[in-house]
Amino acid sequence: MEHNPVVWFEIYVEDMKRAKAFYEELLVVQLEEAKMDGLDMWIFPHDISKTGATGALVRHEMRPPNLHGTLVYFSVPDCGERQSWAEAKNSTVYVPKTDIGEHGFIAIIGHSEGNSIGLHSMV
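Above: the chain's sequence. Below: its structure in token form.
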């Protein structure tokens, strides 16, 4: 395989202001607004010279968020610390920080819009 298979993701939301604030604080980033034919879309930071995928928060009536939708994992410095941050924000922790051997650690939390998201770190 010449490249990683994931190139883009969309996280569906109902309250864009709330979701944008959640992700900007969780990941310590600024999202960028994208103007697309009536879609409310904010794109995560990206650098095409680096590995990994980027994506966007999207508000669209045909795609409501839900707990059992696609699971996206975000790279964070320490998923245990970000899990604690999420708990302080009253987010549900579905899977607490878990050792996955040589691949690091994961946690799965609920986000502000009702989806579940994964966190990954090497510590």
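Strands lie at 8-12, 32-36, 39-43, 54-59, 73-75, 93-99, 105-110, 116-121.
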